[in-house]
Input
Amino acid sequence: MTTAASERILDRLRSDGGRITTVRRAVVTALVEADDHHVTAEALATSVQARHPDVHRSTIYRTLDSLADVGVVDHVHLGHGGAVYHLTEDAHQHLVCTDCGTVVQVPGELFHDLAEQVCDAYGFEIDPRHFAMLGRCAHCAGHAAATI
Output
């Protein structure tokens, strides 16, 4: 299954005119095989270097940037930590609890109306994929209300 997913992503990259290099193949494979769908660049680099120790970390980081530029991966800031990456095939937005750190994946369409309102009111096109919405999950909000 992971090989088929990797090949499907590489075919998409190839059809958009992208070159398929050993590093790109290794990074896509690491993204597909990752246990967590939100992976840091550091974790991806460790995974890639386990199989390809000759690949320098900076090359992996540049590859992630180029994959993001062509729309294969999204990088997202989930609060105060570093960016995480996920495949665009699994498009979604993020809600992050500022108390417990829970990350909730929500459909991308959730912010569609907000994006339209911001554009209509301010002439500004937002990209809600890049940042998470911060707030409090139901558990933490309920816990806080119970202690008041």
About this structure: DSSP finds six helices and six strands in the chain. The first strand starts at residue 39 and ends at 40.
